[in-house]
Amino acid sequence: MDKKACDSLSALEKLNGDVLLRILHYFNDDNIAQLSLTSKHLRTVCLPTLFQKAKVRCQFIAKSDPPPASWPYIRTIEIAGSFSSGIGFDAGHLRQILPHLVALRKVHFRFFTWGVYWYILDFLLAAPNIRALEIEEPSDLERSDLSFPDEVSPATLPFTEFVYTIHAPRPPSWSNFKPPETIARRCYMSPLVLSLHQTLEVLHLPSAMAPLQEMAVVHWPRLRELKLYSENYEGEDPTIFARLFSGMPQLRNLDLHFFHKGPSRQTLIMPSDATFTTSFDHLDSIHIPYPDPNDNIYDCLPPTLRRMQLVDRPRYYRFNTKWMESIEGYTRPLLITATELLCVIKRLGPLAILEHLEFAYQADSQDFMLPTQIAEFFPNLRSLELHRYRSEGETDIHIESAVENIANALSTLRHFRHFRIYLNLFVDDYRPPKIFKQELRTDSISCSDFMTLLRHYAMKIVRNCSSSLQIIDFLTTYVYGEQFWMRHYVGRDDRGKAILELDDPAIIPLSRLFVFLAAFTHDSR
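Structure tokens predicted for F-box domain-containing protein:
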């Protein structure tokens, strides 16, 4: 090792443990393993990070035992696959090892073929400090409900966190109109979830599988994070969410990350005629797809809210055609207008510590007032994402004027760092692919001309916006064949003049990068 490397290593060793651990977050496993071999001190610091996760592959269970040196540091075990013999876990030594894993907090079953039933949970509880259970399975898998022996009270199980993860179902075939895969309508772990209502603190469930009616009649006194995601088929009861959340007084993170396939076109949480008292006093963040402007929840959100996302999910531009409704089965949503959004903001009142905000809306006569109200009511914003859908009869001149107005209004935000925007440009109107994926589109505008156009808008934003702005992202939906964000970094030269740098590799997906570069090279000739 040369003298320069030795000096750098010596300087690294002088840092305290907390600083070193923060640095390790930027290293991959190989880098951490190499660093742990350089000195005893660095090895001591690296071991908790290096061994924090163990993987058990059931097909090779006899070879999956974590080494004894890792036992004090393992915080998560991932169990995946299927057993190659009928004796299951006993083909290895995990039964004997579990009592020694005192740091183990989370067990993650990833496509575990047998399903997680009582005998599996009983086996895992040999580890003394397990608190979190995550299960990752296909979306269309249907199993029989989990049950417990008569002598077992599931309410006494130690789990405070339950996450049930499904991947998005297989999309429909673009060529032969084969329908998409369906999502199972019940989670077989529901008996466990309902039994733990007194102790759960974190709960993630697919909305289509969640036993919402049963959940709404019990109390969740310690639940602080709830995520309902994927397809949502709420029935005729408009008060289901109000009743559900009325039993969650400590809720801090509410993430309704679903998309509608039921009768609703907007998400209504608290109807005007609801008789349930719902407290959101502790809420830090909220995510609502296609919000209903008449929802009474906007009168109940606390002034201490830090993140708010009133979004279009799925993206509203996808409903330009009948594909989303007739083939994929989505309910056509109703997008909130700028006028309605202004009313929502006034009902919210000033949120002085709100740091992150996302709005999707349809431009109308009050479009120019909206950015001004955003800056006035949310003065502490660090990041903002706007999806502005143009109104009927708008032209490119109207869009350019709207961009300038947004930038001018946001110039008062002194802590503003990151701006993401979808402008619904005419040349970038979304069109569904003919065969699975869209090809690169150059019929309406060339790649280089489109990049120049986005740079023009970025410079207009930079010149009018706060000098604290560092990143601008534009959502593009059509020109490059996929939907993705194009990022511009904002810098300043010695004279304070704005400088923009396009971050190609970080934003353009690898699947399109070579096509994009080829097209850009062709356009530049």
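The radius of gyration is 26 Å.
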